[in-house]
Amino acid sequence: MTETRISQAPGTPSERRLQWIRGVPDDVQSLVEARAEIERLFALLLQRQTFDRAILDSVDVAIIATDAEGRVSLVNPPARAILGREGDLEGEDVLELLALPQGTFSRQMPGRWAHALIVDGREIEIDLLMSRSQDGEQQDLGFFLIFHDRTRDKQLEMERWRLERLAAMGTLVAGFAHEVRNPMASLRSIAESLNDELIEAGVKLPHVGRMLKVLARVENLVRSSLLFGRPSPPRLAFHQPWMVMSSAVSALVPRTKLLGAELCIESDPDLPDVYVDDGQLVQMLVILLNNALDAAGNPSRVLLRVSCDRHLGPPTGRGHHKSEPPPRPMVRFEVRDEGPGIPAEIMGQIFDPFFTTRASGIGLGLSIAQQLATENGSRIELTSPLGGPTTFSVLVPITDPESP
Question: If 0-12 CB within 10 Å is exposed, 13-18 middle and 19+ buried, where does residue 290 land?
Fold first, then answer.
């Protein structure tokens, strides 16, 4: 309804006023219909935005979206996890958020390169892909930045290389130990016969006793080397965690009695059964408990705790890294000692074969434990802050990995 329409209407002023009044409902109806259409389109837009955000939040790849000026409009959960940022990030300058140089958006799009970030005091390397969003008229709408943490990829590659090296070393060590075992047994038999003859003759030669101790240690090394190089295939079945824990503690009774104390034991109630070779799991725990006793010196300063672990953290290391998509629930067998802790400079070596800090140690215990864990679909985690306590955790599956 406009003044032009009123002024051009024919008839007397009363007739024109009547025509204006009659025209109002038509104009109001058009306005109502237009407003309803706007509200419908706005609702569709919100629904589409919600759907798009749900998709971006559900993918495993880190994504940041910005407006045409480079201000953040969306950050999905994987991106927040890599950046270590919570709270509202909308409106922040993405160049500052990702520590990108000025002029980054002037590059030809799309662009892809490696970029280093400092997150929580540590450097991580990301693989960054940038692309520009445009409408049908080639107007800039903003930018998409897609990236992932390459640090985790490098760790997995290093772990794969390490396992391949250990496999090759295990084959070599097992072959050598097999060849040495029979001559060693003969030499021990000869030394024992000599010792018996000397005793019967009333001759005391302490060197023979020392020889027997050295031979016993070498035989122990041979047995450990054979176990490291050629472990028996696991016989997987379902077992109750408390039974495994009890067997491991029982195996340590002779040592704890000599030390005059008992291990500390804790367990969550109603734990699910674990799918594992129970004998090999007991062997892993005995290795870890013996190491903990060596570090702590007193059984009362060693804790064996069993709990259900439904959210897995990182693999071995001091820090925590972003985990891969959530695996199946596991049971955590945790061995903690109140010893001095593990120095940072040797943290990366303690699982290496024949590495030990004890004068009488062989250096195969942790290597064997890690190998057995891998064979059983499990894994070992380690945390050891300066000054202790040191915690080794064996995470064991509660389901058959082959089951759906």
Answer: middle
Q: Which of 19, 39, 56 is the last residue of a domain?
A: 56
Number of domains in the chain: 2
The residue with tokens 């031979």 is: 215
- Can you tell me the distance from the alpha carbon of 72 to that of 12, in angstroms, rounded to the nearest whole number? 62
**In whole angstroms, what is the distance from residue 176 CA to residue 376 CA?**
26
Contact in structure between 286 and 248 (CB atoms under 8 Å): yes
296 assigned to some structural domain: yes
pLDDT digits (tens, 9 = 90+) for 49-102: 666 666 666 667 888 888 888 888 888 888 888 888 777 788 888 888 888 877
The two beta strands, 264-267 and 302-309, are parallel
**Is 170 in a helix, a strand, or coil?**
helix
> Could you tell me the CATH number of the domain that includes residue 272?
3.30.565.10
Are residues 279 and 310 in contact, defined by beta-carbon separation less than 8 angstroms? no
Quickly count: other Cβ atoms within 10 Å of residue 321's Cβ. Answer: 17
Q: Domain of 44?
A: 3-56
- The whole-angstrom separation of Cα 190 and Cα 207 is 14
Give CA–CA dist 97/79, Å, rounded: 11
